Structures are given as C-alpha cells and as structure tokens.
Automatic annotation (TrEMBL):
Native organism: Weissella viridescens
Pfam families hit by this protein: ABC_membrane, ABC_tran
Broad class of where this protein is predominantly found: membrane
CDD domains: ABC_6TM_Tm287_like
GO molecular function, a single term: ATP binding
Membrane topology: Multi-pass membrane protein
Key word Cell membrane present: yes
Matches recorded under PROSITE patterns: ABC_TM1F (PS50929), ABC_TRANSPORTER_1 (PS00211), ABC_TRANSPORTER_2 (PS50893)
UniProtKB keywords: ATP-binding, Cell membrane, Membrane, Nucleotide-binding, Transmembrane, Transmembrane helix, Transport
SMART domains in alphabetical order: AAA
Gene Ontology CC terms, in alphabetical order: plasma membrane
Name the UniProt record assigns to this protein: ABC transporter ATP-binding permease
Matching PANTHER family: ATP-BINDING CASSETTE SUB-FAMILY B MEMBER 10, MITOCHONDRIAL (PTHR43394:SF1), ATP-DEPENDENT PERMEASE MDL1, MITOCHONDRIAL (PTHR43394)
Amino acid sequence: MVKFLIPYIGKYKKDVVWAVITITIAAVTSLWQPKLLQQVVQAIADDKMNLMIPLGIQLIVVALIGLVAGAINTIFAAKIGTGTAADLRAAEYKKVQTFSFGNIERFSTGSLVVRMTNDVQQVQTIVMVFFQSLLRVPILFIGALVLALTTLPRLWWVILVMVILVVVITMGVLSPMGKLFGKFQNLLDKTNNMAKENLQGVRVVKSFNQEHNEEVRFDANSKELTDINIKIGYLFGILMPAFMLIGELAIAVSIIFVARNIVSDPTMLGALTSFVNYLMQIMNAIVMAGFMSMFAARGIESTKRIKEVMDTKPDLTFDANAAEEKLSGDVEFDHVSFAYPGDEHEVLKDVSFKVKQGEMIGLVGATGSGKSTLAQLIPRLYDPTDGVVEVGHENLKKVNEKSLRKAVAFVQQKAILFSGKISDNLKQGKFDADSADMKHAADMAQAAEFIEKYDDQYEHEVEERSANFSGGQKQRLSIARGVIGNPSVLILDDSTSALDARSEKLVQEALEADLPDTTKFVIAEKISSVIKADRIFVMQDGELIAAGTHRELVASSPVYREIYETQKAQEVID
Ligand SMILES: Nc1ncnc2c1ncn2[C@@H]1O[C@H](COP(=O)(O)OP(=O)(O)OP(=O)(O)O)[C@@H](O)[C@H]1O
C-alpha cells in the first residue's frame, strides 16, 4: 500500500526533506532539555548561581528551537498531506472519467464518491501524522531510553516495568478503539446517506406521511452512533488516567530508590529530574506509536480502496488512433446480444436490423423488454456481448470517440440537468453554441416558450438537481440539449413522457421539419407517440420480434396488435 503512495508523496521531495529535518531537530531538542534541566538543578544544589543565567538562556533557546522546528514541521507535513490528497483525488477523478457504465455500476456511484472524498481525507490524515511523527517516535523512544539508562543505570528495571505496562495498556485499549472507530465511520456513512435520501425524497416522505417512520429509522441509527461514541469515550477515560497512574508510580518508585543517595551524592538530584523526564518521553513515544498505528490501519484501508479504483481497467476504451470523421445516420445491428456486466442473463438476444439515415424508428414493447438497453448500445455506453453495432458504417469498437459523440445524441429517460445556467446545459450538446443555436434548439423542443418568459432567459439559473423546473420542462431542456448539435442519430428514450399530447406532437413535427436527415429512434410507452414512424420495432424479452409501419404491424404482429388494442381501449375509458 505504501508503495502505491510513494509516487504521489515523491512529488513533494523537498517538503519531505524539510519535514524530516525539522522533526529531527524537534525530537533532539526535547531530549536535550532534561539534560539542561539536570545541570540547572545541579547548579542550584552546588550553589553556583553564576551558572544559572547561561544555563537558563540555553534552556530557553533550545526550547524555542524545538518549538519553531515543530511548527515548521507541521507546515511541511500539512503541505505533503494536502498535496498528496489533492493529487490523489484528481487522479481518481480522471480515472473515473474513463470508466464505462459497467465499471461505475460495479463500484456503485455512492462508493466511488466515498472513495474520492472520505478515503482521500483519511490518506491525507495519515500522511500528515506520519510526517509529524515519523522519526520523532523512534528518536524519542531510543534517545530517551539510552539517556535514562545512562543517567540512572540502576533503575533499568523501572523503565522495563513501565514500558511493559504502557505497551500492554496501549495495545489493549487502542485495538478495540480502532474497531469502534471503524464501526463509527460506517455508521456515520449510513446516517449521512439516510439523511440525504430523506431530503432528496422529501416529497415522497411528506406525501406518504412517512415523517414518523423516517424519524424512528434515523433515531435508531443515531442511538447506535451515540453508544459507540460513549464506548470510545470510556476507553479514552481509562487510557489517560492509566498512563498518568503509571507515570506517577514510576516517578514515586524512582524517588524512593534514589532519595537515600541524594544526601550522600547531591548530583543525584539533577539526575533524578532528568531521569523522570525521560521516563515521560518514553511513555509518550509508545502512546504516539499506538495512535499512529491506529491511524495507519484506517489509512491503509482507505488506500486499498483508492488503489482498487486506480487499478481498474476501463472495460470500454476507444481507439486513440482512429481518425475523426463525420458519421452518417445509418445504423446497423448485426446479430447483437447483450448481458449487463456481471449478469449472466441476456437482455438482448440476437438482434439484427439496418436503419437508413433520416429514418424515424419507433421502439415499443413491454416494460423490461430491452428497449433502453438497445438504445444504449448506439452511443456505445456498453459494448455488445456478441455481434457488431455500426453507426455510419463504422464498427463502434473502431470508431473515434469524438466522432461518435458528435454523431449520436441520447436523450435519456430521466432528464438530468446540471446546476449552472440553462445555456451551460445546452452547450453540453454543442460547446460553441451561440444564442441563435440555443433559440433554434429550444424552439424544436418546445422549451423556448417557458425559457423566454424568464427575464434572464437562457442565462436563467438551474438549481441543484434542477429543482426549479417541472418534469416536463426538464424533459424539454434535455431534448433541446440533444438536438442542438444537429446529430446524425437522435435517440429519445421515453423523453416526452411528461409532455402533454399537444406539446409532444409539436416536438415531433419540429424534429421532422428541422432535422430531416437525422435518424431518430423514439422509445415510447404509448403507440400513439410513434404511430407516424417510418418503421416501428417491437421488442419482447430482448428479441426484436417484428418491424414495420403501424399499418403493417397491426396486420401482421399479434403482440403489437394487442398492445395497440389495449391502449386504444384505455383511451376510450379515459
Ligand atoms: N444497469 C443494469 N444492470 C443490470 N440489469 C439491468 C440494468 N438495466 C436494465 N437491466 C435489466 O435489463 C432488462 C431490460 O431493461 P431495459 O431498461 O432495457 O428495458 P425497457 O424495455 O427499456 O424497459 P422500460 O420500458 O421499463 O424502460 C430488464 O430486465 C432490467 O432489469
């Protein structure tokens, strides 16, 4: 895991060098201070007041150097930590952009977000802590141990007993605490998700009167979080007094064993002072090491999760050598079968058809029959498991990515807009669109009528999750974004479902009149939406079971006839 982070940290070589130098200085000064203190005590005992001032100045200077070195170290450690985290986040984000739908679904979007935010944050903390404590712990531990032993060698056993006790307590308390921290993090994620889901679905919660149930669910989680927090508090509660007790005992025992000699040997007083100081430093070093290993365990877990993202091979890549070209609107499926990644079940089975540029194709069939799946293969959101998909007589596996993106516009079932302005969203369909392009596209999508009512028209804000637009308005904007680039192939996946019949008709007429050369695939629940299509494809259980004009299908396809008759009967009832 550390190997994975080295290239990222390596970018901050200079800062690493400074962090190491400053931390070494800070550690050495804290080892030096007890020695100086020892000399001060000695000078007092010897009544050598003339030594007091230089010694006092030395003590202050050393302490100041330690302080400044520690502060500078924190700055460098923070720089390495935040820099590494920022680079990791950027690299991860870049990597995720190369992912196919399949890659993303395998991780789940929620998990990818956590891996780009929370996990990166954990790595930042561990890198920072590492460069703040790296070297400090071994220098302090070994240095203080050696100095304590050389100061009062007779008391070696006090050191040994204290080290054993501190190690046992540190391990005994920090290991369950680490587990509790892990649980705490998971529960926090769960609580956050719950709050997010509740707020996003606030309309459903309110309309189904679910506030109470939601509160109960939230409270249960919250209580669990509180319990864990209390347990962590208990452990901390034990830890600190336990260390203090060990420290005080060690000091008391040392005093008892040395006191007798102080009368005969006054140098013992100074030695005892510095010995006690070193004892405390040894204890600090062990506790610091314990906390570091706890942080490290969490940091390593997060690094693993980030590494998983970075090591994933995008399962759909475009040929970088393919030349950019203008693709025509001819679309061909040649014996295409498809199963979603990680799923055995075939959702498309041996589908073949040829569509000519400018044709309008209606796609109908029962829910789950594979209409959206078929549509998603045209902009190559997935590769077929078997068979070949061609746009403009080019196999999509060999086509240039930009050419395909320009050629195929896919207006999805669920209209998704991005926060920003209306114009920003339309420009996603054509990055250099001018106001005339926007007006033309909005006219086609019957969106101009509501956009132009705003004072700021195309500069009107789109709020987060496009909350300030109705379902129908979102669909119109999403269609406008689809048509603005004058694509060779336009796919409307149930994109007019929230439009009234009149608007839907107007959109279709506008598309017919203004985009005559664009091939159109229109997925629709209602046959009335595609009745005028040049051909209608009928899907059933992933198979293309019939194709033809409305008239032909009514005459030849029992499945189509049944759908049509049912919908007609429904219209009469309505
Ligand atoms: N991302 C996915 N992962 C796994 N299975 C999926 C995924 N998306 C769809 N499916 C499955 O594929 C089948 C076809 O779904 P598809 O969305 O293509 O149907 P559809 O005809 O467009 O349905 P609808 O009219 O309800 O939109 C369904 O059984 C569905 O459960």
